[in-house]
Specification:
Layout lengths: L6 E5 L4 H12 L3 E6 L5 H8 L5 E5 L5 H15 L4 E4 L14 H26 L5 E6 L2 H5 L5 H21 L4 E8 L5 H4 L3 H10 L8 H12 L10 E4 L6
Parallel strand pairs: 1-2, 1-4, 2-3, 4-5, 5-6, 6-7
Helix pairs in contact: 1-9, 3-4, 4-6
This protein binds nicotinamide-adenine-dinucleotide (NAD).
Length: 245
């Protein structure tokens, strides 16, 4: 129970990796707020409440800074504080760069990159009053290596790494640790949407010969969110089955 009495906020906690992270942090003892759009993720909050913990689901668009500030205020007032922020909300709008629309570029940057900035800025103001706090950002191996058809996504996830290192440097003196995880291909709705031939090509390249699971990513995030990683900050931890050894 390394997170007993802690309050965590997981953005995009209604499904996929974010859902699993929310349940993992709860299993470690944390009270968990989640936010998503268009649905709040009430079923995840109900599941956590069954574990005799506090949980609440909020509808919030992380790309909107006013909504994000209000979210942090509401979480602090509903839970009595905030100790952990997991910036997990993310989207894709894939297409070759040469044909990518301005809207598809802007939307992905707004959610995946500006969303991380909005939530981190608002949460950091609360974290200043804590003894210790942690932010974990969901980047991607695509942010480290690029990928054909994902210029917007790759740029957003590379940007998340820049934000991670900058927030880590600015907040370390207040004992706020900021790290990122960079998953490879994880079995979720995002990867289920890939065409079969693309999936086969990806599997051929992964030394562990399978996609990762949301549970495996959640375990890593749980480690980085807790005092088990108390001397780790500003790092990007790759979890990709050996794809980019
Ligand atoms: N699935 C993978 O293989 C993989 C690999 C690397 C990184 N990631 C990253 O992990 C994170 C989760 O991915 P996933 O596969 O679980 O995705 P998903 O599509 O299953 O879930 C995304 C979540 O984000 C929420 N969301 C989307 N836009 C939002 C917004 N504007 N405001 C608030 N919430 C919003 C959705 O409601 C949902 O809860 C993303 O940041 C993704 O880029 C995923």
């Amino acid at each position: 129970m390394q997170l007993k009495n802690k309050v965590a906020l997981v953005t995009g906690g209604s499904q996929g990796i974010g859902r699993e992270i929310s349940l993992k942090l709860a299993s470690m003892g944390a009270n968990v707020a989640i936010c998503s759009i268009p649905e709040a993720g009430e079923d995840v909050a109900s599941e956590i409440k069954k574990m005799s913990l506090n949980s609440k689901a909020y509808i919030t668009d992380v790309s909107n800074s006013e909504e994000t500030k209000k979210l942090i205020e509401n979480v602090v007032s509903d839970f009595g504080g905030l100790d952990i922020l997991i910036n997990n909300a993310g989207i894709t709008r894939d297409g070759l760069a040469i044909r990518m629309s301005e809207d598809d570029f802007d939307k992905v940057i707004a959610v995946n990159l500006k969303g991380v900035f909005n939530c981190s800025q608002a949460a950091a103001k609360v974290f200043m009053k804590n003894e210790s706090s942690a932010i974990v950002n969901l980047s991607s191996v695509i942010g480290l290596h690029g990928n054909a058809g994902q210029a917007n996504y790759a740029a957003s996830k590379a940007g998340v790494i820049g934000l991670t290192k900058t927030f880590a440097k600015e907040l370390a003196k207040r004992t706020i640790r900021v790290n990122a995880v960079a998953p490879g291909f994880i079995k979720t709705a995002m990867t289920d949407a890939l065409k079969d031939n693309v999936k086969e090509t990806i599997l051929d390249q992964i030394p562990l010969s399978r996609l990762g699971t949301t549970k495996e990513v959640a375990s890593l995030v749980g480690f980085l969110a807790s005092d088990m990683s108390s001397y780790i900050t500003g790092q990007v931890v790759v979890i990709d089955g050996g794809l980019f050894i």
